[in-house]
Records
---
Amino acid sequence: PARAGVACLCEWSFSSQSWHGPTPPYAKRKMRRRPGIAGIQQRRDASVAIQAVGEDAERQSVEAMRAQLLKFRNSLEQFALKHKSEIKQDPGFRAQFHAMCANVGVDPLASNKGFWTELLGFGDFYYELGVQVAEACLATRDHDGGLCDMTQLMRHVQHRRGNAAQPISEDDLLRAIERLACLGGGWRVLTIGGKKVVRSVPTELSTDQNDVIRWASESGVGSITKSQLESTKTNGAPGWHKTRAQTILDQLVKSGIAMVDDGDAKTGERVYWLPCVSKRNGC
């Protein structure tokens, strides 16, 4: 009966060797066409065309940007010609001018020759200022151990330049120190306890040494004692072991960064002064 049912549903033609009933699943799988060489080549051509369009758009964008930067640079040169005196005499105006130059990739200090040097004399100005900064730091190294507070350094350099000299700003000092850094010797501007300190010695401060200087700065007077480092109530001090506290203080004294004061009549305890953050700094 099952064979009769199948024969009723479909019939097989031996003459044409064709199937006139429902298409078997295996026949459907065989009917799927594989991608031919033409299809692969077509997709490849489309990918190449898309890549070419993208590269062309990128090239046009870069060219437009270069043209815009060139236009801005020309405008910047015209601006410098027009405001030459203000740039030379006004430190704040000069700092803003440097920021404008940096935005378009222009460095007036990159060379001591060329348009900017001839126009504004930046090369000679910052080289001269760099020499004055170095002289000030070297003169106070025995006092502060090679870490000079930026405010004190500014005052010292201004004193060396005299009242008739061109005014300077902190931005000018930073640029001069940046030029000194390429000479080696450890020249660098550090931020310790919220204050900028100029380092002029090739010595890297450890984390503990930085913490001691910061706590001394936050004390308001620029000094610290061994017992304060051992306490957990001193400006967030972690409560160091006495051996660790004494070791760090001795290191700071040996490097010249800290000074010893045994004249505290109130407690009789030795006080360590950090001239780079002390209000008594005579830089």
---
Amino acid sequence: QGCVQQWKINHDYITDFTSNHDGTALLATCADGKLSVFDMRYVKQKGGTKSIVLPDVDPNWDPTQNQPQQQQPQQQQKKKSTWDTHGYTQSENQEDELLSCTFIKKSSKLVCGTQEGILSLFSNDIWCDVSDRYPGHPQSIDAILKIDEDTVLTGSSDGLVRAVQLLPNSLLGVLGGHDGFPVEALGWSAGRKMVGSVSHDEYIRLWDASFLNDDDDDESEDDEGKNDAHECNTSNKTVVSAAVKGGGEDSEDDWEDMDEDEDMEDEDGSDDDDDSDSDDSDDGKKPKKRENIFKTSNEEFFSDL
């Protein structure tokens, strides 16, 4: 069938696009400073316009700057109605080029990289303006790759690939770099063991990213430990309740036997305290967190010298 739907509502080149978790909306960033949101359900509507093209002149541009104030509410109402009539809506002009985007926080937040090196965050279904901003990159953010619901990798024009935590905001460190050449794209390998980056230096570089999943593995192990502890407590309660139900002299003898066993275990445990402490000091080391593994910008700079 060829092209089944097209929109031309922006006034500069499209830089990136992504979809929400259920695929009902397509979101596109543009160099004109606007975020465009398209309704995928509109494509299947009968009688809908299959080609939506706006004039090349930006409707927000007013050469005379003498536009009557009473016409502004009508224009705002027209913008809101485009979602129902033509299957799209747009944000206000952010006065900065939007270059990359991805969803985080279980699709409740859309993070966009900008020309000024700011991470701009939009809240789901509130696309008119950003809800949060996180500056810090010295140059433009041309690529974004999601690690988990709180963390992303960014590729910047200064050639570095950084790990950034969002809400709360924190720069975790540098994964690698391309010797000052702009990073244009980032991507996962199969199994999420490596991250690939491409740059203007004509290199494709693969970075070891297995440690990026360490925190997720720790969380799953903690959950398994909690389940095992819960099962252990449940079994202990069952044994105690059975002993109580037995009643009489036999039950008292059982309790005395249990006390004697506990005393013997305490004596054995006191002898093994020193050994357990030494074992914990050697083998009980937890893996390093992401914050301690990443290089800082200064370390990355001097490592190339």
---
Amino acid sequence: REGGNKWGKNTQLEPSGKSMVVLAAERQMAQKADMAATGGGDMSRITDMNSERASRVQHPLFSTVSLMLMVEILNSRLFTTVRDALGLTYDVSFEMRMFERLESGWFVLAVTSMPSKIDDALAASLRTIRALRTQPIRKSELDRARRTLLTRHESDMKDNLYLLGLITHLQSECVPEKTVDCIKDLLPMLTAATVEDIYAAYDALPLENSHLFSCIGTSGKQPPGQQQQQASAPAPTPTGTPQNENSSNILDDPKAAAAALLQAMKAVGMGNNKPEDPPTGNQQ
């Protein structure tokens, strides 16, 4: 459902027009500083870490990179949990619609399953997404997502359409966030991303039921309900076969089928016809 655009903005959820991902990261840094001050931690070390991260947070690509890594991690968890562990779906995917000009966005969770399992598959997928906070992200998950994006970027650089997407709106006044830094700093930003950055992007996702909408579609010419009704309906009586109390057992009993066929032949006069006698003698 609703979320931020490529720059983490959504004016409906954050009227100030600021990036929701950046605001979440700033709250994280403020909480860390407060905990160090009240708990007697190493304040200088916390300050240095926050200072290093603050430079990345203010980069135009911070929200984009954080959201991209979050999507990869969620897709990995959905696949291993809902498909492999629970066996509820053939395919499941999580995608973000990250626009550059429109100050809004949304995410789409697509689940493919049997009609009898679709409700359970959808519920399991939502639980997996919401469990990202209770089941912390491991560094290995982040490293795997990072490698996936870096490999994909290297491969897509050979595609002209991908290159055009990188430079689109680069000089547009409608997208002031997109500068040359968004191209030359993409790999360094991916390399420097941390687990905290992923949770900053995750906190920008509204996952309450009031923000979620579900839609179930079926493949095929008929809805599953009608397919089940037709499957349970009795088979039609074959044409030309007299319908009687034993007609339902004809297909199950070969003798009954032969008797019914003979009866039908007699009814139309085929059973009384005899082949013509062969000609005798000489005929002129």
---
Amino acid sequence: MSSRYDRAITVFSPDGHLFQVEYALEAVRKGTTAIGVRGTDSLVLCVEKKSTAKLQEPRTVRKICKLDSHILLAFAGLTADARVLVNKARIECQSYRLTVEDAPSVDYVTRHIAGIQQRYTQSGGVRPFGISTLIVGFDLDGTPRLFQTDPSGTFSEWKAAAIGRNSKTVSEFLEKKYPEFVEENKQVKETGRASVVSGEGGDETEEITTEDHVVKFAVRALLEVVESSAKNIEIAVMKAGQEMKLLEEEEIAKAVASVEAEKKAAEEARKPPAARADPGGAAGSSQPPTTSGQ
């Protein structure tokens, strides 16, 4: 049935499908995973990064793009399509500044990008953009915003979102852990400390900034589906009134090591006390029976 209606983007199937749009969504699902997390006063984009060739310049392969001084975009899907869409968005941001003499809002830029994506679903001779985007930034009053757009042109605001390959698994993790994360992030903002599980099964606290806390949460989510290595991860952090910061590989490695240590401590805490006290178990402590009369 689909082969009769997927030739042209402007033709609906009898059951109301636009197959070219659905094929574009499939291209997104095959792309690398990208995660956006909104904290109380910071925003983090965390993306899976494919390994580069030995002679390739790593800085030319980016999944996180800067649209304006206060707006970032991460994408999943076809990189070439993303480059075209990002350039259109950058031009609109500069045009807005020249016309209005003020910075565009995150909502305005999101609507513009979603509008372009939608126009490419109802015009002959074109095809949909094969990407979904996560757009983060701060409004003029310092409010953090996180939006997601799809190839169909739909957009919505999120507290935390995931796109790309294995996004369903990551989204389930975010839905489960986000309420707990929000409470901890508020605590970090007030006290500068966060609770961590110790290897002995109790809770300890550590000094940490709000942005580092958001980074750790995003890394925890991405490690659900990505190999535990700083070389496979790219992270950008934003705070109100400050420039975007791309984390160096050493900083990412530190965050990954911290998350892995907490996971290991949580696993140890779930073990029975006897197993923690005797890692070798009963088999390791048993001695061979002695024989008499020899």
